[in-house]
Amino acid sequence: MKLVAGFVLGLVATGALLACAPRPMSDRLATLKSDGLRLAEVYDRIAQNPRPIDIAFVGSSHTMNGIDDRGIEDNLAQQGVAADVANLGVMWMGRDLHLFLIRELLARKTPKLIVLELNEHEPPYGHPLLPYVAAASDMFCCHFWFDLDFPKMFLLFLKEQTRGVVSILWRPDVTAVSASKSWDFGWDPVDRVWDSRTPKTPSLGDRFERLLGERSKAFAYRLTAAFGDDTVAQIVELARSRHVQILFLYLPEYVYAAYESEDNVSFHEKLAPTIRLPGEVVADPLNWFDVAHLNRAGALKVVPELSAQIAAYLRGR
Fold it and tell me: How far is residue 27's CA from residue 178's CA, in Å, rounded to a whole number?
């Protein structure tokens, strides 16, 4: 028994030391590949690019593909609102990464407004890329016990920490170079037009709805939303503690955007105002490049209305 207890304590101590080992952000970012490179680019815009950020759009690929930050900046200027606008959307959803990015943003820039993406529901797990860039404090910053993927993500974090320690002790012959690039605007438009006749791959929620009905699906989403709900509340509180305004942007996939199933919006509206995209734009399948993302044409069409809502909000403050 003592042997087992000693082994367990040694394992815990080793894990704690690994978790707390310092690792330069440049090394962490250099491990990102493929779609993860977008995160390196966003971090570079926040931490390295000297251009200010007055209005930051934070969200998933819905934001990355659907929000023309240059167009919004130009449109706001035409309305007499001078602001540097940045699209900080990163592939995939995960509120813990949004909190991480907003903390970095508030530490390095002086934004006036953060526009945080809302989807049709809050996912019950964190972002798959957070373990690659996080320090231990970032992994535990949210109510992680609500995160259904936390055990797997924490093991991945320890793996990355181990890689970092090994690279310090045994430097590779070839120095790793981060693939991040510098940019002033982060909109990543897609020109393809969605064929709405293509059947959608059913999600777990869709299969649940077919089995037990729509109300059961909505109940399941609300039951598993604690991690996202809590982290969104932390983001709002953090922004306001730094005297930064915050808005939600309802930017779900086509079926929810077009037919206004807004349970998630209703739940969050007590925290901050929500802006929506023009109904005639989101209801037209020609403005989408797949079931979940606006294409270039759709993104351009929402710029005037979105800019007007933001300008009105800023003037009203």
Answer: 8
